[in-house]
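task queued by scheduler; priority normal; single chain, no ligands, no partner chains; default sampling; output format set to structure tokens
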Amino acid sequence: MAENGFYRAFEDRFRGTRETIDARLRVYLPFLAPLTEATTAPRALDLGCGRGEWLEVVQAQGFAAEGVDLDAGMLAACRERELAVRQADALAALAEMEDESLALVSGFHIAEHLPFETLQALVGEALRVLLPGGLLILETPNPENILVASRHFYLDPTHRHPLPPPLLAFLPEYAGFARTRILRLQEDRRLHGDVPIGVREVIGGASPDYAVVAQKHGPASQLECFDTAFEAAYGMPYENLAERFDARFAGAETTATTAHETAEQALDAARTGVETATQALDAARTGVETATTMAQQALDAAGAAQSELHSVYNSRSWRVTEPLRWGAQVAREGRRRAKSTAVRLDPVDGAIDYVSRHPRIKRLVTRIPSVERRLRRGQAASAAASVAPEAQEPAPKHKPSYTQTLWRITSPRGNSTMQNSSSAKLGNARRGMLVGLVSRAGNYAKTAPRFRRAALRVLNRAPGLNIKLRQLYLESKFGSGSRGDVWSARAASGAAASATTRAGNETAGLSSEAMSNGINAGQRTPLETYFHAYGADE
């Protein structure tokens, strides 16, 4: 290997360029400066000098440096740079040196090439040749780096076995050096920052090389100059990376445990929510079923009620009582309208107002002596009430008779008064309702004998109402445009029938007053006369 140049080619391939090696070696400068200050022209011997990178560094610091190596190819590279080198064995070269003749003895990557006994002897010889306070530097691959110990170390076929840092540091101490310091070297500088440490960093992140710097006993003042260099921290130990890795994953484990617990709680809450939602859904289903049942029951009840209602509508009693229902509805509507307009619906005032606007009807009424007397009495009472209302007696509990009220129609003053006051009280809408009611009652009376007989009994006891209803009935049958002619024609017939009946009654001993009031059950009122005289042709 020393003859064929293999090792020089191997170093060029795997050790790195001269510039890279020069940059790595500058870590030792803090140890060299105190030596040059304490010793004039200090001498240095580099064992296994290789391509001579370290010889150039120490020469630049003022040392008289010499190198020895067994490989002729390496020595040729050094001679090309005019470095002082010779081919010799490292231990033999030390043995040739005088005691306390060197300030510095170094060996870069030679310890892993030597048997342990040879290495131990080399450390002892170095102690002998060093000046007081002199330094021994031994650099070798660091087996704390798992990649170095398992792979990179065995790339060099001349390597014997890795040397753990504590073992190599113990050799100088055992040999008698005053103090030693382990320098871990060439790690990735980013690992000194706050970067996450993973498995890759734990396996290959520790310093790939390390060095043991040992100092020989010397004056205390001289040793103090090296304290700073010996106390400084160097490199990245494996333990540091392992602790950071454990701390990171312990935190990750804690975080994962917390996340797992949170997820479990969320899952439990979700299960509870699902159970609650299921219960609510069941309750909603029950409510829907109950509501459906109730709705079906309501539909059934509504169907039954509708069937019963249809039965009622189709019954004979419903058809018979239709006019009464219609009359009650009209009465309710009239009361409602009367309350909203603050006008009292008085059929007597309405009849008076209607007659006052038709002179023919008024002349017809005056032809009946008994009615005229009653109208005059009513006119006198009305005139007294209108002239001095404050001097009148309290109003009687019962209304004046219809004939007294109708008397106001026969006088000019009564005509004017009633035309103005009654017209304001009774509107066309109410008149229309009354006309319709009387019309339907008359039509129904023609086909319903029982109803006709009941109506006649009522009308026999209210002659004034008889007159009012008769005129409204005529208005509903023949219209307002011809009511005078119709009234005159039919009133003449009614008067003839009434005169005949009155003559018979007088013969029987009835007074004119009794005849005019229709007290006798056999006497026919005008509406009775109308029903009997014209019922057949209607």
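post-processing summary
- The CA atoms of residues 32 and 383 lie 151 Å apart.
- Confidence is low (pLDDT under 50) at residues 342-348, 388-426, 481-538.
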